[in-house]
Amino acid sequence: MSSEHSNSRWDYLFVSDLHVTLGYDPVRRAYHAREDFFFDEPFFRWLRWADKTCAEGRRWELIFAGDTFDFFPVDCEVVDRFFRAQELRQQELDPADPQQIAGYWEAQFGEPTTGEQVPERIQRLLFEDDVIDGRIELEPISLERALSMPSDTPSVPEWAVQLYRRYQPKGDAAPRGAQASPEVRALAEEEMAFRVVGARGTTPLSRQLGWDEACERKYGFLPTPEKSADKMASIYHGHPLFFRALAWFVGRGHRVVFLHGNHDLEVFWPRVQERVRGFVAREYPAAFKDDAEPPSPPDLKEQIDFRPGWFHYREGIFYAEHGCQYEPLNACSNPIRPLMPGNGNLLNPDVGCLGVVCLHNHLESAFPEWENRGDHTRALMDLLRRHPFKMLGIAIRHTPDFMRMAQRL
Hints:
The protein is an alpha/beta fold.
């Protein structure tokens, strides 16, 4: 480190491309077939070594330089469970009975937490397909304003209105800044009107992508905030020791910084970042269970940072980046804000990721060892020579889906 930074508190460690994914299943007592990271315990030992060798009066900043996690392998059980629950809900709930639907959502999510925005809660309580497809957004409005709206404005589900009335904070009848008449203010204690932003007749985002429900069942969840957070939960359940190691490390006063790569672009979502911090916090007691006087839990927002891009720069010390931006197939068109144009609820991944999801994953299911046989081109040619019909079947089944999705990026 240069002399001009000798008074800095931090020294730096770098690691990348761990590809921590679905991990170990204690029920089946086996690793997921597509797992590449089997080193949770060595990783923990490495962090303990780093802590012991840290210079006096200084702390480590550990930079994960991309692809720390791998969101591409599909947890088929989670996907199946999601669609089973969706089908069960659609079979058992009568959309014409708002009491029934409101009761369902209350049972799923319970009372709103202190300080929770009620309009945001109602957004979350809408059916998943409407939220993900962008067909329904709600904006609470005064009754006075509602009366002046066109008659063809899409109607709001009665169950959503009931839930809002049930949880509406007092004094929040009209939107902030609205000047409702005394008559409207009197009525608004009991009633609240909604405006629907976005019509149900619009083309769902999944179909705009060429990614309908059948494709999602086959290739896994779309990279939306909610479903990416569910993927992060699957990673945690397969690697609790990895998160325990991070909890111990930050508990010792060190910091952790994540850059995103092409395999973990989904850490861009704040909801995924919250999950990572939440899982580290969950493992914190176990990380210090053998300590007579465990340190107080740290401020995880301060000590676990997610950089808004693929690089990290400390002036005069280092510049670190994930190299996917130099490979055309794996380069994201906008790595700082990797969203689909015109939509803030869906990532715009690189073409290479679709190749992994559509082809690589299914190839690995058929030939689990192929990726570890050295040069990929030679390994593929060898598989084609030894298993021509099986390889042709994979190409026929999945290449059309890949082409259909790739041309929409």
